[in-house]
Amino acid sequence: MGEITTGHYVALSVVLFFIGSVGVLGRKNAITVLMSVELMLNAVNLALLAFSRQWGNHAGQMLAFFVIAVAAVEAAVGLAILVAIFRLRETTNLDDMSTLNE
Amino acid sequence: MNPILFWLFAAIAVVSSLFVVTKRSPMANALALALVMTALAGLFAGLSAPFLFIIQILVYTGAVVVLIIFVIMLLNLRPEELKLQALQKGKFFASAVVALALTGLVLRLVSAEGSTPPAAVPASFGTVEAIADELFTTYLLPFEVVSFILLVGIIGAVVVAKRGE
Amino acid sequence: MNPTMEWIVSAGRAALIWLVQLQLIPILIWFERKVSAYMQDRTGPNRAHILGIRLAGVIHNIADVLKLFFKEDVTPPGVRKFYYLLAPFMAMMIALMTFAVIPFADTLKLGSLEIPMQVFSHNVGMLWIFAIGSFGIFGIVFAGWGANSKFSLLGGIRSSAQLISYELTLSLSVIGLIMIFGTLQLNEIVRGQGGLLFGFLPMWGIVLQPLGAVLFITSVIAETNRNPFDLPEAESEIVGYHVEYSSVKFALFFMAEYVNIVVASGVMTSLFFGGYGIPFLPTEKLIEHAQPVLLGFLAAHVILPAILLVPCRRWSKRLKQLYTDARRIEADFLSAVLVLMALGGLGGIAFFSLNPLSGYGPNIVAAIVQFATFSAKLTFFGFFFVWVRWTLPRFRYDQLMDLGWKLMLPLSLVNIFITGLVLLLVDSLK
Asked: pTM of the full predicted structure?
């Protein structure tokens, strides 16, 4: 196990990002999809922090901080919408939420 | 960062994130997500970002995942319904293959770039004081905008989730 | 300091804090039993004894623990096993972790060596408490959901909603204090409280931030699920999230509650009641006057047992009239202990007056005295929690939510604004 470089962090971030994207594309449960989105956002945060450390600049950490704040809002509003839909249609299945399609 | 710690946290993060996308029960996904967040917080600490380490635990594990778990508890999905929502095999594998290919591609790009050693940073890098100094000077406008977004989000969530009269 | 030494010192600090937290559990349970008994005009536990030694009911705890461990460990059918088993461990583990940032003495300086007397001395300080505290919900949620029973689920939802609501006030009520001292490091906050206001008043948090202190104490009681906010286990209305647990698993929840009280008392002490500090005697002065302080400490060790010896002898006579079995020796045993303590104190006085403190001695003595002060305050606030519980009636659920969101949250925001205004005024007057 050699020295850990910025490349390692970025590679980990890439792996996590694509695992998250599989969840977003391949899952039908709305809550799980929301969680996968959070996972992708977190992967990006990791890359941002790695770059921030690489250049000794706080800008990356700032951006990560704002991403966290906005992601929290996204989770709150997304879950509120899910609860509202569940109340109307008794489902969390994304394939059933297609009335606009018809 | 200590290599052993890095590989430990990386392994936890990758394995738990696989659980997040593959496990059927949403509660299992949420627990795995909490683990990913905590492992990532550990990595943040290793990247000299102590403030974000704490914020990650505080906001993600302590608030977002708790909120998700709370909603799962409220909805209390029946197992039969969850069975219906299992992975669609074809869709899942197609996206997995694409993701794998893209991961390989980006990883090649990352490893092709010769690594330069990280810049030397002062001990105060990423501490609460340093972050606050920048946040309330250079980044004051985005900070205020984010606080406004949070306010809108709170009101929006309450209005959407409120029971209609 | 080489890495191995550093590891040993860290492990030592962690072990010390761990022991303090676990040691306080039986004391708190004893408080709970005895205080409630006296408030309800009963005697409380006084039967369990080892060779006649009852220690006014402390021994009863051992009987309790034995009972809990040897009870049948029932896992009801239909539970979600993984979460069901995970929940009690999470509750206990998270409760134990929070204490890491609380300082139990000032940084010990041994020449060039500086040992911070807290397990995790990083400048994120207070934020760590909030971060780990927000973890605490997991234990409750998994217990409520994992048991797969409607009662547990309701209890779990109620108590997690309560925890989330009061966490807001909890963190906002501290911000005023953080603004005044300009740091999140608890050790620096405690040091700052050693100063004097107008030259005579100790700058304790409760003096600087009376409103903040009241809000903090109220929400911390809500966070530990204690009366008047003990809806999670309001036994007369509903049954709580741990209704499906038995034996050791229940004991873990039970112990986690008391560890949470210890943590809450520790935070309260450090933020609002001067932490390890003794009023009018900051660390530097304490080290300077270590010799008289040590002798005073030892003198108390002689005088207190000597005074207690008188009622103890009288009690011994009564016991001998009352009992014929092993219990009659209890007072004699206690008298022996008291005499030994007094003799030890006398020996200490003799030793330290012949060999005055030198070298690192004063620093170590100061640390020990501060640790003792901290423990005393910790125990007092543990008692305070019990006192509050057996004095106040319980809130109804809607009253609880109204109080949290409509009264305490706005008040904590007002507190922040007022603090900021006063700080600006003080700055402009300088």
From this structure: 0.88
